[in-house]
Amino acid sequence: MSRREIGVALLGCGVVGSQVVRLLDAQAGDLAARVGAPVRLHGVAVRRPHRHPDVPAELLTTDATALVERADVDVVIEVIGGIEPARRLLSAALSAGKAVVTANKTLLAEHGAEIFAAADASGADLYFEAAVAGAIPLLRPLRESLAGDRITRITGIVNGTTNFILSRMDASGTGYAEALEEASRLGYAEADPTADVDGFDAAAKAAILASLAFHTRITAADVYREGISDVTAADIVAARQLGRVVKLLAICERVAGPEGEESVSARVYPAMIPRSHPLAGVGDAFNAVFVEADAAGQLMFYGRGAGGAPTASAVLGDLVAVARNLVAGGRGPRESAYAELPVTPMGQTPTCYHVSLDVADRAGVLAAVAQVFAEHDVSIAAVRQEGRGTDASLVIVTHAAPDAALRGTVDKLARLDSVREVASVMRVENES
């Protein structure tokens, strides 16, 4: 053994942190054997020590800065979340040459460049598998296993709360409000579910995925975002009639320009996907990510995307990796942002729409609607009329077109005299 032990500091002891403490104790012998040196927890930084009776009192401290600065700490694990004080503490740890393991998607999505720069300057390891999709081994395959391949597209269900809500709406026919209430009652939704249902959580994860996949710095601000609060039971029914299901998707892909130049599109929104797609069967609070690459083809990563024990599993996997590097005198992968691809604005991103219109049932209506699509250079893939008289409706699915053109089409349709209401608009994935 080249090291007597690996000293660990833990910042935060909530749902995930408490499981990290438990696993470090329960698996101490195995961890030492896998690493090549004992892994010893030297302290746990919390705000209110009395709330953690299961943690030995001598490990608890309210002084996170002093804990990070301890000479016997080699690895800092951060599961506090949010920007501050995590940003300050991790920057200090990395600047001091201490390895960092973090589950903080928000920090990485908004200030990743700063954190990576601190790691590169000191030569310290920075691992963050738990930041996206919980226990699912996903980020390390993107950083390492697929490093020799060219990833073209990632499509993921990366938020368990919204997936549970949409799965319940599809299975039982309930509305959004009822499904959200059930998610809250079962503990899948936070007291304030805004970050989940409005897509902020998924957007942060999409930024991390796009950065790794396309070797380009992508921030949360670069990700187009829509949530699921406007998804109705009627949307779910319409999707079912088309042999589809509605999912909140994080989509990251290479977009080819007219001259062959490439850019990156990163976006989060609810969309209809075919029930034959591998992601369609991902139910309840599970996560799954579908990766497409030139050489590897199509890959699927599936599992529990949240929860104390699953996320702690990913944290400990990273801890073993950085501890092995410390023992062997090696280093993990650095940030790879050499490509510096531009980000495609949502308006220029090709998408497909499903549009449902309440219309007057009279001659010429379809022609007037088709004319609006033609004016915006949007091709119609399929059209269906439902009902007659005052209950008449047109359901239209488009071919791919720039999102701005599709949005402009919908806006003008809403102003037609023959259109009483644009009842539903939703993007459709996996259409030509």
Describe it.
The protein is an alpha/beta fold. It has 14 helices and 17 strands. Strands 7, 8, 9, 10, 11, 12, 13, 14, 15, 16 and 17 form an 11-stranded mixed β-sheet that branches. Helix 1 crosses helix 12. The mean pLDDT is 95.
Features:
alpha/beta, 17 strands, six-stranded parallel beta sheet, 432 residues
Mean pLDDT figure: 95
Largest sheet: 11 strands, mixed
The quaternary organization reads as single chain
Percent in strands? 25-35%
Unreliable sequence segments: none
Q: Could you give the distance between the termini? A: 58 Å
- Helix- and strand-based class? alpha/beta
Shape: elongated
> How many E strands?
17
**What is the radius of gyration?**
24 Å
Q: What is the tally of helical segments?
A: 14
